[in-house]
Amino acid sequence: xxxxxDLKRIAELRKTIEYHNQRYYQQDAPEISDAEYDRLMRxxxxxxxxxxxxYSATSPSQRVGxxxxxxxxxxxxxxxxxxxxxxxSSEEILEFDSRIKRLAGVDNISYIAEPKLDGxxxxxxxxxxxxxxxxxxxxxxxxxxxTQNLKTISSLPLKMKHASHNPIPSFIEIRGExxxxxxxxxxxxxxxxxxxxxxxxxxRNAAAGSLRQLDSKITARRPLNIFLYGIGNVTGIDFSTxxxxxxxxxxxxxxxxxxLIEQAKDINACINYFEKIGLKRESLPYEIDGIVLKVxxxxxxxxxxxxxxxxxxxxxxKFPAAQETTIVKKIDVQVGRMGTLTPVxxxxxxxxxxxxxxxxxxxxxxxxxxxxxxxxxxxxxxxAGDVIPEVVRVILEKRxxxxxxxxxxxxxxxxxSEIVRMEGEAAHRCxxxxxxxxxxxHIRHFASRGAMDIEGLGEKVSAQLxxxxxxxxxxxxxxxxxxxxxALDRHAEKSAHNLIEAIKKSKNPPLDKFIYALGIxxxxxxxxRLLADHFGNMENLMNAKEDxxxxxxxxxxxxxxxxxxxxxxxxxxxxxxKFRKAGVIPQKKEIQTDAPLQxxxxxxxxxxxxxxxxxxxxxxxxxxxxIHSAVTKSTTYVVAGSDPGSxxxxxxxxxxxxxxxxxxxxxxxx
Length: 670
Ligand code: IVH
Hints:
Strand 17 and strand 18 (390-394) form a beta hairpin. Strands 14, 15, 16, 17, 18, 19 and 20 form a seven-stranded antiparallel sheet that branches. The protein is of the alpha+beta class. Residues 63-69 have low confidence and may be disordered. Helices cover 36% and strands 21% of the residues. It folds into six domains: 3-64, Helix Hairpins (Orthogonal Bundle), CATH 1.10.287; 86-318, DNA ligase/mRNA capping enzyme (D-amino Acid Aminotransferase, Chain A, domain 1, 2-Layer Sandwich), CATH 3.30.470; 323-420, CATH 2.40.50.140; 436-505, DNA polymerase, domain 1; 511-582, 5' to 3' exonuclease, C-terminal subdomain (DNA polymerase, domain 1, Orthogonal Bundle), CATH 1.10.150.20; 601-667, Rossmann fold (3-Layer(aba) Sandwich), CATH 3.40.50. 2-(butylsulfanyl)adenosine (IVH) is lined by residues 82-84, 114, 116-117, 121, 137, 177, 229-230, 292, 311, 314, 316.
């Protein structure tokens, strides 16, 4: 090989990897798949090994990630947080084992085999059993102090459990992975889409984005979870195996993945484990991207030590991502309720890991341009676990002649108004608040089930009324005349009558439903409820200043700004006046005087036999109680159904009253 060319390639790779580190660690917006990243890193490591003279302490091969963002306080890890060497096949797993045996001079090694969760690594400091500080990994030496956000994770004990067999150390670093389960992730994204926010690309990004929120009130509303899998420095306790460490972590009250972690007596058991977990992967409630093997004997771990960025005693065995190639037929640009333009690749349908894929969101213009995706291109797409498919890259060799670079339309594909890109935002928006697509979406949202719940006013009818120019905004609904409706072909006398009646019936909605129905950016059902409870009527809410809004627990500056902006907009003020004129008067939800659950708060865990969560929730709220998703000091009851989760442990460790389904039914008078 030509040395000159190799050196050039080393420099190139270092730059490219730095760039992707930045995207992955600092912006939570990776552009390439993990597999692709690993390939680049390997190529760099191979080349660096061939030219030891070219060693550089600042090469990305020597670091785990990028330096932390300036916005959080930085945190120096008392002992470094290492990364893991990767293997992709049984051969590589066997090589790892042979290497260790040779270095240790033994002929068998026993391991602990663990699933490799796809979230983000954190380091937690406990002093005398009390959670003091916690940080992200950052570059392995320095991370970001996210203590407040970690405290919002309900399964994370703030105090270690103490018993005679589990002494509490005066100092310990505990390591683990913060993640979001697949179903809560889907729900979070649906809610974001509903609230006019960009969905997260995958659970890992959602977890990272949530943990790295400056506003911990937002973090608290995200379904974050944690599993702990190791320790760093510890004072006063000696462990001899990793298995003992895991057991002790469990006894201290930390969530440890006990259902999947196994002892493996030799490397063959590890390979079997890799295959077994690979088969289970899809059915697990969270995403994993492989397994981790760790030498069980801690003194052997110490003997083996580390090579630059990773320990010699551990190995990540990665699953292959399901990838396929297909052709981009066109790139559509869709307009959302909040005016955001999203490019979407429409592709020849192709089966990826068991699911037919024909569309993939391309997120925004930058994303399309970085990957240089063009109509006619052959692209590699991938689905990791249950996640939305993504376009990984273009196969340039297959690009036909005459393709054109993608450009975002200058005018809204729907209303032809000018498209703008706000400073500091990746999204392009149609800022015309009268943009038909946005308005139609807006009206549909207003009438939808969780909002004003107007029967017979779904997507089709909203669009029909809008297109016929009978309505231009939600308030116009209340001025609809039956005769004009009947004139519309699909509206026979009877259905027109029903629709008018349904609209009329919605004139005194609960205040929270009305606030939600307005479609204020970032104001979902829960926030609407908080606002309704706090302000009591629309006037108070419309006159609220920023401080009044942020005084509410769970409302941070971003939500507050969006509410203020909404009620400053002339067009919205006009619509509010029209509502008033039409006699639309939201009702503050009265707490019934016979509210037996007044002041009591409930947390549900596990499945109930007799009713679903929503029903239980409605009953509790009707009787004056509240429902929360996380166990806190102020929780009155934790209702445990079958298969309860970590909330039960939390309740037990914090001494909160736990009741079963039968006791719950009695409490609500059933
Ligand atoms: S052990 C020195 N165990 O994988 C040991 N890591 O590339 C360092 N991860 O930063 C980590 N599950 O984010 C370990 N059971 C597990 C893990 C795990 C997921 C992640 C973690 C780490 C990365 C290493």
